[in-house]
Design brief:
alpha+beta, Beta-Lactamase, Heat Shock Protein 90, 2 domains, four-stranded antiparallel beta sheet, four-stranded mixed beta sheet, 9 helices, 10 strands, HATPase_C_sf, two-component regulatory system
């Protein structure tokens, strides 16, 4: 079972956050762009509305009509005194009104010119009576203008409309707002928008991170489950193969024994699994299966470099489950590195009480609570067929007592009622009923 590469796991964690960052970033950029256009559009509508409304005032038309008449008279007589007086009078009448409108409408200037392009009103007194700095030709020709131009106050977004007397243009009216003021309004609107965008970004990032972490934990659990499943599959395959091989060998041995070929049967067994007999079990004549099990354990532990000491006092026949428990515990002691293993089994009425102890390294205190868990083993598994089955099986068949951890330089494990093993290593005890 292959686990997911680190890059894939990292992508699972980071991709949702990156998507949120991208989504919120694009949304914020669109909102900022829309806000900028909205501010500029609202400003353009305001200056155009002020200009159009002010140009329709009868007071403005009347003042410019007098200036226009004075311009005509001055052109015919060749004098300008009457024209200057008419412009001065128009300024006196219209400038106060223009100043009030500038403040009320929030515009930076409201400039009125006569038909010659000379300013009648202007926020700066020195500019009144002067010709405008931008070309008024199109507006005097009857066209309206809306756009950005640079005048005496700087770059401004302005609206220019003609002032008409019937069908004749007698002046112009220009209303504008400084570009710096528009930028200030935009910055103010942006300052109100950014906290919401930042909050959405933070909330989305945190939420996506939590969700990604939950997904990663779920995927990790699935990986672990898949690995466990694969381990169980390999173990089951190995057990099936071993069972088939063992069954075949049993049939061969049975055939030899059934035909009285005892010597050939023993030779076949020695060839399959050489037995290092230790003797000393003739005291169990009524327990052939138990005696054979002890002999087999002696041989197996001898191959591991350990010596088995058996103390067995039973009257009734020992069943296969008890033998299985004994075999697993003794085998675990030998595989753990013990050189001396003591196995005791005594009958007390209808109960069998057994124990297996050794002089090995004992049980690691950190693993004491997990040693009866299926799949857990302190020994390596180079073949990959699976370990951690023996103690789980033994515990399920008996009332096997988990060892409690006590002191000692070897980390010895002891029973609840016995603090240390006499041999210095681990000690497991169990109790089972006599076979009925």
């Amino acid at each position: 079972m292959r686990t997911r590469p680190f890059a894939v796991r990292l992508a699972v964690l980071l991709l949702p956050s990156l998507i949120v960052l991208l989504s919120v970033g694009v949304t914020a950029w669109i909102a900022i762009t829309v806000q900028e256009r909205s501010v500029r559009s609202a400003t353009a509508e305001r200056v155009q509305e002020v200009a159009s409304t002010f140009a329709e005032l009868s007071q403005v038309r009347e003042a410019l009509r007098r200036v226009d008449a004075a311009e005509g008279a001055a052109a015919g007589l060749g004098g300008t005194a009457a024209l200057d007086a008419a412009r001065a009078r128009a300024t006196a009448e219209l400038q106060p009104l223009a100043t009030v409108v500038e403040g009320a409408a929030g515009v930076d200037f409201l400039v009125i010119t006569d038909a010659a392009g000379v300013r009648v009103t202007h926020p700066t007194p020195g500019e009144r009576g002067q010709r405008v700095s931008t070309d008024p030709g199109e507006v005097l020709a009857g066209e309206e203008f809306l756009g950005t131009e640079t005048g005496t106050l700087g770059p401004t977004l302005r609206a220019k409309v003609p002032v008409r007397d019937g069908g004749r243009v007698i002046g112009t009216l220009s209303v504008g707002i400084l570009e710096s003021q528009i930028a200030s309004d935009y910055d103010e609107a942006l300052a109100q928008l950014l906290p919401w965008a930042a909050g959405a970004l933070l909330f989305g990032t945190l939420s996506s991170s939590v969700l990604a972490a939950a997904i990663e934990r779920r995927l990790r659990r699935l990986d672990e489950a898949a690995r466990e499943h694969e381990q169980l599959r390999r173990t089951a395959t190995a057990l099936r193969e071993q069972s088939h091989e063992f069954s075949t060998r049993l049939h061969v041995i049975r055939g030899l024994v059934a035909h009285g070929d005892t010597r050939e049967a023993l030779g076949y067994i020695d060839g399959v699994a050489p037995v290092l007999t230790g003797g000393g079990d003739a005291e169990l004549p009524a327990q052939p299966l138990l005696r054979a099990t002890v002999e087999a354990l002696r041989a197996e532990l001898g191959a591991l470099g350990a010596r088995l000491e058996a103390e067995i006092e039973v009257d009734d026949e020992v069943d296969e489950e008890t033998l299985l428990v004994l075999a697993n515990l003794c085998r675990n002691a030998g595989e753990a590195g013990a050189t001396r293993v003591r196995c005791t089994l005594r009958q007390h009425g209808e109960r069998l009480r057994g124990a297996v102890e050794d002089d090995g390294p004992g049980v690691d205190p950190r693993a004491a609570e997990r040693i009866f868990t299926r799949g857990f083993s302190s020994k390596p598994d180079p073949a990959g067929t699976g370990r951690g089955v023996g103690l789980d099986l033994a515990g399920s068949l008996t009332h096997l007592t988990p060892p409690t951890i006590c002191g000692g330089s070897r980390g010895a494990a002891a029973l609840v009622k016995q603090k240390t093993s006499e041999l210095g290593g681990a000690r497991f005890s169990f109790e089972m009923g006599v076979a009925g």
